[in-house]
């Protein structure tokens, strides 16, 4: 597994040296060590030195790295036509129509863009133009994108390393309803209190399972009650489905559906193009029309190649029954992790749904002191067994599991077995 050995040594070092010369150090390297990856195939990544990794991190290559059906769709369309939305072509209208059919009635109008950040920018712009108000409500610890405005509203960024802290009075932060850490708080009341100083709420932007904030599932009724509060104040509700959408939670296409809510605006990203840079915003005709006279144009958004790729991703999700696979594999994971929890005190909480799971590690089940070093050791141990995992959450003690949706029973059992072995050496 030592990728710094052998014939590849020079080229890895060369690449790292060139990287230092030309690429900002603000672009980090994952997994604590440089992995020189040369090939992806479904749920696996292959390194230069021939190692095969099980990828439990990549929630972008949703239907599998280099899924042949998606690759073919992109290649074929690229050889025929690639223009932009100022022309008429069936791919655009058919793709938007197909996506809108996966959404609740009324969310019929779609905009196609290039990244989750661009989509969230547009969602906020639409909310502001429709409500003619300015303020945005966001959950603590959330991340919604890397543009200037989105960094200003993402506590994960402005309160994180290098951030300038809270500075924007149009941003209202509501607490994370983390019932594992504190079940006694009235999170709805706290939500109301956190926004009570504003009479200009334009929108509440929220994921339906919190990702960067620590893989947190909402308590029952939380989203429906908070949506009601926002709407009573004249604001809109934006579901950021960039991480949790496209069936990842294993029971519905969109994670908000599990909470019996219908957002005013839905934002899609990451898995939408299986790695091809695409994203989308869906909303009602009225909200979509609120941009008024100003033209909307995103040079690459909705181009024929992107639409073909997007269609192919939807084909695979349907044809290969990937939502069902996410449910079955997710249940298997949860069962295995809960068995490990009985064995190892360090596992404080196992949570999430489908293939969007979190394992929170604590030093003590009473004090809930975060087991930060141990989380690091665990993912390093898993890496030594060629299984890729990541850590997140405000305390950096939550192991995230969000693999390509094509993962198999064998992969799940191998993950649980490997985790058992690592925890055994760590804890006993
Ligand atoms: N929203 C969420 C929930 C995200 O996780 C991300 C990316 N991590 C974004 C928005 C931004 O997407 P992108 O990186 O495609 O701009």
Walk me through the structure:
- A hairpin with a 2-residue loop joins strand 13 and strand 14 (about 355-360).
- Residues about 1-5 have low confidence and may be disordered.
- The protein has 13 helices and 17 strands.
- The chain is an alpha/beta fold and about 425 residues long.
- The structure holds 4'-deoxy-4'-aminopyridoxal-5'-phosphate.
- The site of 4'-deoxy-4'-aminopyridoxal-5'-phosphate has 14 residues, from helix 4.
- 4'-deoxy-4'-aminopyridoxal-5'-phosphate (PMP) binds near residues 116, 143, 145, 242 and 269.
Which keywords apply here?
single chain; 428 residues; alpha/beta; 4-stranded mixed sheet; 13 helices; globular; binds 4'-deoxy-4'-aminopyridoxal-5'-phosphate
Secondary structure topology:
Blueprint: H1 8-22, E1 37-41, E2 44-47, E3 52-55, H2 68-78, H3 90-101, E4 109-113, H4 116-131, E5 135-139, H5 148-153, H6 155-158, E6 171-174, H7 187-195, E7 201-206, E8 209-210, E9 216-217, H8 222-232, E10 236-240, E11 265-268, E12 279-283, H9 285-289, H10 304-319, H11 322-343, E13 347-353, E14 356-361, H12 372-384, E15 387-388, E16 390-392, E17 398-401, H13 409-427
Parallel strand pairs: 3-15, 5-6, 5-7, 7-10, 10-11
Antiparallel strand pairs: 1-2, 2-3, 4-12, 8-9, 11-12, 13-14, 14-17, 16-17
């Amino acid at each position: 597994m030592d990728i710094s050995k052998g014939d590849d040594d020079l080229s890895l070092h060369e690449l790292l040296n060139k990287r230092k010369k030309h690429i900002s150090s603000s672009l980090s390297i994952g997994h604590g060590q440089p992995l020189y990856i040369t090939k992806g195939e479904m749920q696996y990544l292959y390194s230069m030195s021939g190692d095969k990794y099980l990828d439990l991190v990549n929630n972008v290559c949703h239907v599998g790295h280099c899924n042949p059906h998606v690759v073919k769709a992109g290649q074929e369309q690229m050889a025929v036509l690639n223009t932009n939305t100022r022309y008429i072509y069936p791919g655009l209208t058919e793709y938007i129509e197909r996506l809108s059919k996966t959404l609740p009635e009324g969310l019929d109008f779609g905009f196609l863009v290039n990244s989750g950040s661009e989509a969230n920018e547009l969602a906020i712009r639409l909310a502001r133009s429709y409500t003619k108000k300015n303020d945005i409500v966001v959950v603590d610890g959330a991340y919604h994108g890397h543009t200037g405005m989105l960094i200003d509203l993402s506590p994960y960024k402005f309160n994180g390393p290098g951030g300038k802290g809270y500075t924007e009075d149009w941003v209202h932060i509501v607490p994370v309803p983390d019932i594992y850490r504190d079940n006694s708080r009235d999170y709805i009341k706290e939500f109301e209190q956190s926004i009570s100083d504003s009479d200009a709420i334009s929108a509440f932007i929220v994921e339906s399972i919190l990702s960067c904030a620590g893989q947190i599932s909402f308590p029952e009724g939380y989203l429906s009650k908070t949506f009601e509060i926002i709407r009573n104040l004249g604001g809109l509700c934006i579901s950021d489905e960039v991480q949790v959408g496209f069936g990842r939670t294993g029971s519905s296409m969109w994670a908000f559906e599990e909470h019996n809510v219908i957002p005013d605006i839905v934002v899609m990203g990451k898995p939408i193009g299986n790695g091809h840079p695409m994203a989308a915003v869906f909303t009602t005709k009225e909200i979509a029309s609120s941009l008024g006279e100003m033209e909307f144009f995103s040079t690459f958004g909705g181009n024929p190649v992107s639409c073909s790729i997007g269609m192919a991703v939807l084909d695979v999700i349907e044809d290969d029954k990937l939502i069902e696979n996410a449910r079955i594999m997710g249940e298997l994971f949860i069962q295995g992790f809960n068995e490990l929890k009985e064995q190892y005190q360090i596992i404080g909480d196992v949570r999430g749904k489908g293939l969007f799971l979190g394992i929170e590690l604590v030093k003590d089940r009473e004090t809930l002191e975060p087991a930060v070093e141990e989380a690091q050791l665990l993912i390093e141990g898993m890496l030594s067994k060629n299984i890729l995992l990541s850590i997140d959450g405000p305390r950096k003690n939550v192991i995230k599991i969000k693999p390509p949706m094509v993962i198999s029973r064998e992969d799940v059992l191998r993950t649980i077995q490997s985790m058992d072995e690592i925890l055994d050496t760590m804890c006993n």
